[in-house]
Every structure is written in C-alpha cells, then in structure tokens.
C-alpha cells in the first residue's frame, strides 16, 4: 500500500482533473469570483485553480455569514483563529497582485451584489459539510444558476465525499475499521497544485471590510496564551507540517499519547480552517518516510488519524442530528443528573478545579492555549460524562467555544465515542480511571507540573492524587488541600459505580 502513494506536484494554472467542468471554457477576458470559506489557502485549492484555468480575472471574497451556521456558529476561540487567518490570506493575495474582499451578511445576497459590481460570470467554491451549510450552499448554487451564473463547488477538505463510501449493503459505515479499509484502498491520486505566483484581479477597486471590522477578537484578554503557541495562516500550517515531519513523525505512534511531549502534528486548527489539505499532509509524509520502515509505520498511523477525521464527516453527513442527539437512540433516556444539581460541578470542570489533577491540567491547557492533547480530551470527557454524570452535550458545547480546532464533525464523534452513544463508540462500561491514565501517560508528572504549578513540588505519585498523599508529603510540599488546590469534587470509585448503574438502565433498550 505505502509504495503506491506517489506524489505529483502540478504547477500553477494547470487544471486538476477535479476542476475540469462540463461546459466549454470561458473567454480568457472573463471574471470569476472565488468564494473562500474554510479553505483559507492558495496551495492545493481546487476552486481557485478552476477559476485560474478558466478566467482571466479573479475576485476572491470571504463572506462572514455566521447566521447560516445556526446554533453552531464559530465559538470565541475559533473566531480568534479566523481573524488572524484572514489577515494572512489578505497578505498572500496582496503579494500576488490581488486583494481579498471581506463582506458581511447573507451569502447569496452578498454574492449577487458582488456579481453586479464586478460583472463576474462564475462563482467557484470548495464544499463544507455541516448540515446547515450543505443546505445553504444548495440554495446558493441553485439561485446563482437560475440567474445565469456558472456556480461550481469542489472537494478540497477531504479525501472522499462523505456520500461516496458505503458498505456492501449500500449503507453508511458505523464502524471505523471497515470504513478505513475502504478509504485507504481508494485514496485519490497525490496531485498537489502549487500556489500561483500571480493572480490577476480587477483594475478598479471594489469595496470590502477589514478583518478588524468583523470584530472576531475577544474583548477580554483571555487569548494571550494563543499567540505564544500558534501561528494561524497557510504559512503557519506549512511551518507546522515541516516541524512535524522532521521531528514528531519519527515517534508518533507512541509519542502521540504522551501529553507532555510535542509529538502530535499540531495541524488540527490548520486543517479545520483549510489552511492545509489532507493531501498536502499525506504528500509530506510520503516524501519524508518513503523507504524508511520506522517512519513508514508512524506515517501510516498519522494517515489513520486523518481517516478518523474522514469518518467523522461521513457520520455527520449521514446522521445530521448527532451534534445534538445520540446516534444510539436508547441513550436519549440516559438518567443524567438534574441540571440544578450538576451546575456547580460543570463549572468546576470548566475552570480546571475538580481536584483531579489530570482533568484539571487538561482543562487549564484548553483555556490557556485553545487546544488540548487528544489523550487528555478522552480523559476529561469520560470524567464529565461518567464520573460526574453530566450530559456529553454540555461538554461538547464548552469545547466548541474554547477549542481553536472546534470542528462539528470531530467534536461530535469524540464526545459521542467517549460517552458510549455514538458510532464505533467505547463501550458504556469503559470509564477512564484518571489516576491510571496519568500514571501511564504522564509517569514523571511533567504535564501535571506544567499546568498545575501549585502542585509542582509534590513527587509524581502524590501529584497524581494529592488527596491520597500522606500529610507529611503535602506539608513538605507546602500544599494545603482544599486551599491551595481543591479536594476532589467526586469520589472516583463511588461515581464509577453510579455511572454503571445509570448505564444499566438503558443497556437493554
């Protein structure tokens, strides 16, 4: 399988097969609008390449149309990233002799207005897959075609469209392993379009907004930690990819589970905003790992993780109710704790004040950096849904607002998997033991010490469970439990039994 993955770099202005349209090519004096959404890159951008191949002038536009995303409009952290990514994309177009337009309002109305202002004959865009946006784009495409405008969309964010891969019975997949086998056997050719050197625009100026005018940045200074950790934009994505293939790739299979190490790709926000494509990641891994057995094994693990991303979009497309409702309908009757009785515990979980160090470390990492290590995401999600018996939807909403890589498909899959109510889910009786998880994946306590400085003087075993430490150990570390650091808000053993009892009420339904 590995050696069949060949990389082809296609130079600018050469049409990718996916960009070939059924209609006769337009006159080279024509104008096309490229509607940017979450495809904020110039490299390997099918909609842009189609426009360049068929038209002389390009009008790139981003329309801030958050109302169309209904209850899943970008959260606060995602808006921070979007602001900085738009600034970088503006600069990229300016360096190529063009200008990114930014508009705000309903997409169809703004596109029609821009068509009238520019005389554009065509609008191209890359597809999004959230249920509300699929419907919005369907309406836009139909309306523009009714207006006599060429309207064409392309696959740019995934290896396969979510509707393409089906079981032998013609049904959507619900289990990852057979889905992955099907996907990996039908990966598209590795053809990467280079970013164009020049992009001709209109001779006259068309009015647009600045990124600042969208007011995406927070009014309170809680985003300080983002700047030290992240570099939004296409250049930042390529830099992160290069760092990974030269570093973390070599020990990804094991290192990806160790939260104190930087062996993950660091690409999830870049992927969500389309600053890099999965094809580019695949090409870089193939180029770096080809012929080196150790790197090939780690590279295949990375691609498998990208396969989970494809699986998440597959599920969201076929089961659009799942961001709000469990895929396994029996879980609708799960006896969660009443809202009033769980409010204080939910707040403690959100603030990283549960008294369970690995949980608190993860929640503080999230608040500070806009990201959380995937292993820790599973731990904090299990603790919320099982030890605290709080609905997974409450956790999904918090992640949606605080994660820079908040993605509806991935977020839904992750939370339903951990809660046990989704496709290919962890069994309901699988309850992560946060103490054993910390011992296994943060043995020396480096991750806990980074995010819980008030406990940093404790030895590793006491650091993982300070309430079990001998009083002299706490005294020697200068720790007053309940003052310097909270006592646990729940007994782990008792809450595990409570969770199993709750799950037992629905398991036979």
TrEMBL record:
Cofactor: FAD; (6R)-5,10-methylene-5,6,7,8-tetrahydrofolate
EC code: 4.1.99.3
Top-level EC class: lyase
PROSITE patterns found in the cross-reference section: DNA_PHOTOLYASES_1_1, DNA_PHOTOLYASES_1_2, PHR_CRY_ALPHA_BETA
Comment on bound cofactor: Binds 1 FAD per subunit.
GO BP annotations listed: photoreactive repair; response to light stimulus
Family (UniProt): Belongs to the DNA photolyase class-1 family.
Function description: Involved in repair of UV radiation-induced DNA damage. Catalyzes the light-dependent monomerization (300-600 nm) of cyclobutyl pyrimidine dimers (in cis-syn configuration), which are formed between adjacent bases on the same DNA strand upon exposure to ultraviolet radiation.
Name of the protein in its database record: Deoxyribodipyrimidine photo-lyase
Organism phylogeny: Bacteria, Pseudomonadati, Pseudomonadota, Gammaproteobacteria, Nevskiales
């Amino acid at each position: 399988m590995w050696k069949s993955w060949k990389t082809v770099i296609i130079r600018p202005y050469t049409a990718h097969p996916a960009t070939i349209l059924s209609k006769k090519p337009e006159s080279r004096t024509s104008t096309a609008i490229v509607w940017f959404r979450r495809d904020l890159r110039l490299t390997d951008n099918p909609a842009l390449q189609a426009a360049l191949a068929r038209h002389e002038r390009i009008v790139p536009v981003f329309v801030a149309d958050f109302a169309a995303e209904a209850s899943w409009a970008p959260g606060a952290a995602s808006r921070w990233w979007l602001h900085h990514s738009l600034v970088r994309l503006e600069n990229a177009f300016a360096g190529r002799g063009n200008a990114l337009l930014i508009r705000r309002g309903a997409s169809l109305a703004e596109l029609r207005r821009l068509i009238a202002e520019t005389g554009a004959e065509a609008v191209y865009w890359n597809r999004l897959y959230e249920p509300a946006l699929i419907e919005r784009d369907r309406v836009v495409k139909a309306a523009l075609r009714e207006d006599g405008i060429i309207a064409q969309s392309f696959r740019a964010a995934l290896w396969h469209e979510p509707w393409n891969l089906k079981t032998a019975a013609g049904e959507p997949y619900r289990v990852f392993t057979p889905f992955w086998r099907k996907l990996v056997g039908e990966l598209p050719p590795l053809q990467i379009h280079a970013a164009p050197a020049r992009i001709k625009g209109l001779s006259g100026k068309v009015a647009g907004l600045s990124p600042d005018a969208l007011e995406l940045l927070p009014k309170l200074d809680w985003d300080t930690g983002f700047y030290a950790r992240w570099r939004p934009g296409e250049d930042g994505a390529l830099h992160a990819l290069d760092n990974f293939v030269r570093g973390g790739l070599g020990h990804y299979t094991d290192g990806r589970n160790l939260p104190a190490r930087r062996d993950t790709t660091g690409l999830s926000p870049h992927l969500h905003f389309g600053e890099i494509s999965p094809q580019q990641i695949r090409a870089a891994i193939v180029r770096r790992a080809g012929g080196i057995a150790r790197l090939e094994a780690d590279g295949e693990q990375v691609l498998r993780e990208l396969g989970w991303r494809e699986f998440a979009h597959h599920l969201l497309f076929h089961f659009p109710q799942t961001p709000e409702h469990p895929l396994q309908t029996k879980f609708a009757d799960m006896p969660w704790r009443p809202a009033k009785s769980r409010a204080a515990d939910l707040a403690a979980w959100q603030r990283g004040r549960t008294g369970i160090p690995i949980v608190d470390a993860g929640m503080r990492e999230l608040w500070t950096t806009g990201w959380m290590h995937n292993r820790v995401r599973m731990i904090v999600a299990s603790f919320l849904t099982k030890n605290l018996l709080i609905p997974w939807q409450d956790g999904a909403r918090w992640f949606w607002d605080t994660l820079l890589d908040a993605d509806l498909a991935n977020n839904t899959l992750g939370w339903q998997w951990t809660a046990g109510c989704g496709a290919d889910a962890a069994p309901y009786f699988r309850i992560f033991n946060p103490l054993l998880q910390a011992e296994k994946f943060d043995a020396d306590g480096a991750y806990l010490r980074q995010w819980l400085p008030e406990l940093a003087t404790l030895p590793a075993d006491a650091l993982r469970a300070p309430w079990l430490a001998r009083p002299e150990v706490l005294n020697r570390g200068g720790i007053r439990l309940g003052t310097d650091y909270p006592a646990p808000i729940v007994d782990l053993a008792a809450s595990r039994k409570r969770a199993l009892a709750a799950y037992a009420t629905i398991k036979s339904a």
